[in-house]
Write a structure and sequence with these properties.
16 strands, single chain, globular
Length: 700
């Protein structure tokens, strides 16, 4: 290697304008074939390199790296666009104190092209802010606030508009109204990616204002916009290249899961085929409004502290600490300053780096109370049960909300809901829907189609269905014949998948469903590492448990630690995983108690049936042998049988509580039990009420 280096250096030092004296017939070094066979590279100067440097716009960066924002394939692009628009609509309504009502419409004007329209009944947007919100990346009001909200970065909806512009060349259409007597603002906007700024393309660059009495709906319909006549609200419409597909990771699944975590929301959804879907609100209770808090000392790093000191407007170090940080009182500030060997009257802007580092270590070593939790707005156990009961099939429901905790100075709260029973989603599939799913799927094999399309259907369940349908696992779903499709439909209706069914995990962050990158998420990893066998479920090592179980997991935080800008998976901080595990154990204990109680009822019922089968014969034999009344003997034997198998007669009191015998345990938490004799399909699926055997009850 050293010889090669010296030889190259010698060549570079030679005069390449003439052949080498040692090799008079060799070609010039600058020509192809010289040296190692490659042409000599021209040298660049510092001045020429400097002329190539230029600033990169954030819009230009994300336009080339759209996969970072969730636009890495057409199917996911459609979901991300709907998700960003719906999240913004929910945040706007809740901040204005309005019960949200949202209209989602997806139309297909051409092949592989869709127009997404989302409207809300929120407060609307003032005219001068509309171009900046929808036509400029990293522009918003939530990034610097420490309070729970769905959006955080100010990227999502403007990035969706940029993706639509790149794939179709069509601008984003925005309609907004701030009051019943105010004009309707109509904008068509596109992003200048090189400068990250909006360009208004209608109304001679100023947009259009429609007077309140001019019939905005009819005027906007000429632009393919479906405006619902509301006193105030916002509509955003984006046309993009995408792919619509049902099943997991679809728009349908996202909206259904959104209705679970937001029971106070009314959703009107029209799919690309024009079919309406309604998700009415099941609770009129409005979520508690989260309050903004200051940063906690434990979540501040040294560089951030130095920047805060330079930008501080406080006159003294003591005031800087109390005004800049959460939970730092004057007494705590005094102890921190003394530990750093500083004066409490020092001007924070005059601190040097060594003094700032001493102050930082004093902040980390001082015992500061945990941050306030009024910045969070959890769903609540009762509303989780209501939301799951509306959309998730089951016979047993329970929920738990953990006390607030802290990671890196950021408060967060974990909530978990669990549903057991009811069978997988295959039971609710009609023949027409199955035909559509088979035609739309991109799965290569029939086995892959079953496991990726239906929630809770694992590999074992798919094999069971295929054996019943007499179909091969590697058959192509799109090439099935009519007879084979009928066989598959009958198998979906007949086969009981309770044993081969895999737990279905619904992940949420700040009430927003997370549908992708489940394997990289701390929620899924903690579910798999929890021992569910102790609660009556079958589970292999480092795998999801088996059984007809749906687990809803919600993390509420002022700053959710996502693993990427697409906000699809939660990072595995030890504090978060600990709270998740404790919540799983709480709902798991209640599930185990229910399963053991149900098994005891079943066992004792079978014993009683055996007793009843032979009691009459025993009574007749005793009556003949002893000469006593057979009816009296039969009555005594019946009393003994009922007493021995008393668990088969478990009853509930007027509040839905089981009447507990001495020595037995209660569930110690909110539980909802649905009668097993009745169909446990959700109300939203069948559009009819189902009688509930037990109401909510809490251990007083």
């Amino acid at each position: 290697m050293a010889t090669l280096i010296f030889e190259n250096q010698d060549v570079e030092n030679q005069d390449v304008s003439s052949p080498s004296p040692a090799e008079p017939d060799s070609p010039p070094a600058s020509s192809p074939g010289a040296g190692n066979g490659s042409p000599r590279r021209s040298r660049a100067t510092a001045e020429s390199l400097a002329s190539q440097q230029r600033e990169i716009s954030v819009s230009e960066f994300f336009a080339k790296n759209r996969h970072l924002l969730g636009f890495d394939n057409p199917r996911k692009a459609l979901l991300t666009t709907v998700k960003e628009a719906v999240d913004n609509a929910l945040d706007a309504c809740e901040e204005a104190g309005l019960l949200p009502e949202i209209w989602v419409r997806i139309e297909a004007p051409a092949e592989n092209r869709f127009r997404v329209s989302v409207q809300d009944n929120g407060p609307g947007i003032v005219k001068k802010q509309i171009p900046l919100i929808f036509g400029k990346l990293l522009y918003g009001s939530k990034f610097h606030r420490l309070r729970q909200s769905r959006g955080q970065q100010g990227i999502g909806i403007s990035a969706a508009g940029m993706y639509g512009l790149l794939t179709t060349g069509r601008p984003v259409s925005i309609v907004s109204r701030t009051g019943p007597k105010k004009p309707v603002h109509f904008y068509q906007i596109q992003i200048d990616t090189k400068h990250n700024r909006p360009e208004i393309v209608n109304g001679k660059g100023e947009g259009v204002d429609i007077p309140p009495d001019d019939g905005a709906a009819a005027i906007l319909r000429e632009h393919q916009l479906h405006w619902e006549e509301v006193d105030h609200g916002t509509l955003v419409a984006i046309e993009l290249e995408a792919k619509y597909q049902r099943g997991r990771g679809s728009v349908d699944e996202y909206l259904e899961q959104t209705a679970i975590a937001n029971p106070h929301v009314t959703l009107h959804y029209t799919d690309p085929e024009g079919k309406p879907h309604e998700y009415p609100r099941v609770a009129e209770v409005f979520p508690a409004e989260p309050k903004e808090i200051k940063p906690h000392p434990y979540g501040v790093e040294l560089g951030t502290l130095i920047t805060m000191l330079k930008e501080s407007k406080s006159g003294t170090l003591g005031r800087f600490l109390t005004e800049s940080f959460s939970r730092v009182s004057p007494a705590v500030a005094k102890r921190i300053v003394e530990a750093a060997s500083l004066s409490i009257r020092t001007n924070p802007k005059r601190l040097g780096r060594a003094q700032a580092e001493a102050l930082f270590h004093a902040l980390q070593n001082e015992k500061v109370p945990s941050p306030a939790v009024d910045c969070l707005s959890p769903i609540g156990e009762e509303l989780i049960l209501r939301g799951m009961r509306q959309t998730v099939a089951g016979e047993f429901y329970t929920a738990v909300t953990r006390p607030p905790a802290v990671y890196r100075g950021n408060p967060f709260q974990v909530e978990v809901g669990l549903s057991y029973g009811g069978g997988p989603a295959t039971y609710r599939v009609s023949k027409e829907l199955l035909e559509e799913l088979l035609a739309e799927t991109d799965a290569r094999t029939l086995r892959q189609f079953l496991t990726t399309t239906f929630d809770g259907v694992g590999p074992e369940g798919a094999d069971k269905l295929l054996r019943e349908a007499r179909l091969r696992a590697r058959m192509s779903p799109g090439r099935l014949k009519t007879r084979e499709r009928e066989q598959l439909f009958e198998a979906l209706r007949r086969v009981n998948l309770s044993e081969g069914q895999t737990m279905n995990v619904l992940r949420y962050a700040n009430r927003v469903p997370l549908l992708f990158q489940a394997g990289a998420c701390a929620i899924t990893q903690t579910v798999m590492s929890t021992n569910w066998r102790a609660y009556g479920l079958a589970q292999s090592r480092n795998a999801l448990p088996s059984g007809p179980v749906t687990l809803m997991v919600h993390i509420a935080s002022v700053w959710v630690p996502f693993t990427s800008e697409s906000k699809e998976a939660v990072a595995g901080y030890p504090e978060i995983q600990k709270e998740l595990r404790l919540a799983f154990q709480a709902v798991g204990r209640r599930l185990g108690m229910y399963l053991r109680r149900r098994e005891r009822v079943k066992t004792q019922g079978e014993r009683r049936n055996i007793f009843l089968r032979y009691l009459r014969e025993v009574a007749n034999a005793v009556a003949v042998i002893r000469g006593v009344d057979r009816d009296e003997i039969h009555g005594h034997l019946m009393q003994v049988a009922k007493r021995v198998t008393a668990a088969a007669d478990m009853k509930l009191d007027e509040h839905g509580n089981p009447i507990i015998e001495e020595g037995e345990e209660d569930f110690a938490g909110p539980v909802l039990i649905v009668s097993q004799e009745q169909d446990a399909v959700p109300v939203a699926a069948e559009k009819r009420p189902v009688e509930i055997q037990s109401r909510l009850f809490t251990d007083e």
